[in-house]
Specification:
heterodimer; A: alpha+beta; Arc Repressor Mutant, subunit A; three-stranded antiparallel β-sheet; elongated; B: alpha+beta; Alpha-D-Glucose-1,6-Bisphosphate, Chain A, domain 4; eight-stranded antiparallel β-sheet; 3 helices; 8 strands
Chain lengths: 110, 180
């Protein structure tokens, strides 16, 4: 069975998140990315492959080297992921808004 | 290095009325989340809502999650031991340890994830909550500082998990209302 890849799988792993953040500033070869990690080169290659399968990267052949670049429009989906965190607080505070008038009434009751 | 979240404040703000303001900002450079929210209620009431377990449990968890406080000793050095319970009944435990309390205006706490036996998973996040009132509107400023980037990521992931369940729940409700 072919595994379905999506953006949430991509960012579920801290190494992959680090790679994404690295690629926000420049395009890099797999070797240059791997130099930033203690993990083995094949491990990093595997992470790059997953990011590629999640459609987050664009690969450009330059001579004998492959440079990886972020697909910016896909990164915007990660922003939606963070938006979930913001929504938590919105929802939480909306619930408190609804609760406050009932607390007010209670407080005024002797 | 470009910061993934630096453009976060540019996101459109949801404002119900100009006075009931809501600001939410993530600063990944300092591993800090800043939250500001106004409430149409007196300061003492909002303070109670943040510091009394029976009130907290009514609003702290985003639906369909439930907040269940096992115990809460709101005093300096005291703790709140509570769980966020998913609709499937899965509990995610946390411990809040109260570091300092200035009644009705400020309290600071250390928030850590924990297991069901109250063993804390350090590091945690340091919360600073400020309350102030003007013309009957109480504003709460919250800053959440994470000791490490990993802790920050974990907090956001946990938030995502809750937020995602919440979104699915809204979707289910929406689909239900379309059917009827």
């Amino acid at each position: 069975m072919k595994l379905r890849r999506d953006i949430f799988q991509a960012i579920a792993d801290p190494t992959r998140r680090a790679i994404l953040i690295m690629l926000t500033s420049q395009s890099m070869t797999a070797g240059a990315i791997a130099e930033n990690f203690d993990a083995s080169r094949p491990t990093i290659s595997k992470h790059i492959q997953i990011l590629n399968e999640c459609d987050l990267l664009e690969a450009h052949q330059q001579g004998r080297e492959i440079h990886y670049q972020l697909k910016i429009e896909k990164i915007k989906e990660i922003d939606n992921w963070l938006e979930q965190f913001r929504k938590i607080w919105e929802s939480r505070f909306d619930q408190l808004d609804k609760l406050l008038p009932t607390l007010k009434t209670k407080k005024n009751d002797p | 290095m470009t910061n993934l979240i630096s453009y976060y404040p540019l996101l459109k703000q949801k404002k119900m009325t100009p006075s009931l303001q809501f600001d939410f900002r993530v600063d990944k450079k300092t591993n800090t989340v800043f939250i500001k929210r106004a409430f149409d209620a007196a300061q003492s009431l909002v303070w109670d809502a943040f510091t009394k377990q029976e009130i907290l449990d009514q609003w702290w968890a985003p639906q369909p999650w439930k907040s269940k406080t096992k115990y809460m000793n709101f005093r300096e050095g005291g703790r709140r031991f509570y769980a966020m319970v998913s609709p499937e009944g899965q509990a995610h435990w946390s411990v809040q340890e109260f570091k300092s309390i200035s009644p009705k205006s400020n309290f600071k706490m250390l928030n850590t994830f924990a297991d069901k036996d109250e063993n804390r998973e350090l590091p945690g996040s340091e919360w600073d909550l400020n309350f102030s009132e003007q013309n009957g509107i109480t504003t709460v400023h919250i800053s959440i500082y994470n000791e490490s980037k990993e802790r920050m990521d974990k907090m956001i992931e946990m938030g995502f998990k809750e937020g995602f369940t919440m979104t699915l729940n809204y979707l289910t409700e929406l689909l239900g209302s379309i059917k009827n």
